[in-house]
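Problem: given the chain below (496 residues), write out its structure.
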Amino acid sequence: MPNLRNREFSLHLVPFHWTDFSGSPKLTSTEVKMKRCDVCIIGSGPAGLCALSAVREPYTMDSMTYTQVSNANAMMTRRSIAGPPQHRVCVVDPNEKWLSEWTDNFKRLGIEFLRSPAIAHPDHFDLRSLLAYAVLSGREAELIESGCAEIRKLHGLGQTQVGLWKLPSTSLFEDFCLYLADQLPHDYVKSYAIDLDRNEEGDYVVKLANGTDVVTSSVILALGPTGRPVIPEQISQVPKAHLISWKCMIDELKPCHEIVLVVGGGLTAVQAAQYALRRGKRVYLSSRRQLVERHFDIDTCWFDKRSTNLHISEFYHLSEAERLSVLKEARGGGSVPPIYMKDLREWEKKGKLTLVTADPDYIGSTDNGKLMIALNEGKTALFDCIINACGIKPDCTANPLIKKITEKFLLKTAGGFPSISVDLEWTKNLFCVGALASLNVGPDSGNIMGARRGASIVANTLECKAWLRDKEGGALANPFQLLWDDETTDSESEID
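Solution.
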């Protein structure tokens, strides 16, 4: 496998990609009782990997010219310049490896391709790296068309013409992320973070379930969507043995469950219905409104680089209450990509699936354990079980660690999200990325592109890229700096 970290591949030429392994080696530990680091990332999902990449990478090509990139590379070879900061990073997560929970959820639902395009990935260095990984790995066949050709307003976007808006397979994305994580120096500690304190020196102490204390200057919370499951009131009285969460359906959906009702109006509900259909079930999919067909989970205006900054700026100038409304409106209660809608229609034609627009109402159970459910127009039907896929109501305090943090440090929340600053800082040197940062990043915060953008904000706040602005020849320094006369003040140069 070619080394992508030395970026001399056919898609674009970069002299080299800096990676320094002089810091702490990667370590998976359940025995160490105290660790010290500069940055502790809690969570090893996509948002956590975005944070690791943003902190460890020396720069990003997203906003730098070829000349600036060349200058940055030259700077890193000069001993007279300090170069990028060598932050020691510790990642804490109860799973064995990166993206474990994310991968399990995708396997549970049988998801073969991501909904997000190839431009959406955790690598802070280059937007094109996932596409490059696919090309150099000989896995271009694992990139399928997203349907962007049907979105007229995207035709003028160059990214859509070179494959960056194709959809990667789940396995391609996972392999790329594991490869990326392996290239970034960090320690990985397998354990739950159960509490957060501050010591006398002002450092944070992350207390882990295995007895380890991680002493760190900064903490980044990357815990993914956090909240409480939504169970519609009309079905809340269904016997627990017959009301199955989509997360448990692999274990709890039995052969005797021949007729299944799936409740929900988003992509997860559709994927749960597909799972049941593939196992030979007769499925009813019930949603409050007709399923909304849309390529991506939010409008492309949040992805399109020609309009993203405008929408972000407008979002920043809203009050918290207005931002919450925008978050809710942008998601719109869930949507379904055309490729999934096509599959649903095929199941409908086979007579295996019925789409219902209604709030199902549990009437009671029959003597033989069937569930009697009222659907639209007073019609009733009998079901063997219900799969609930109505999502979650945002509530960050549903996470025990965050609940302790809010109580201990008296931190504010709004609409279930941390009330953070423009730097994504909840309190000094305690940051949020991913879905937790929605109140300041915007509706895309919960997906990979938003998590990547949020991680960049945190990295800038930690001054991870400050070396690029070094006055002594920094890659982003003002090229006309040498023409300035430090002894001449504005007042002295004024003409009377």
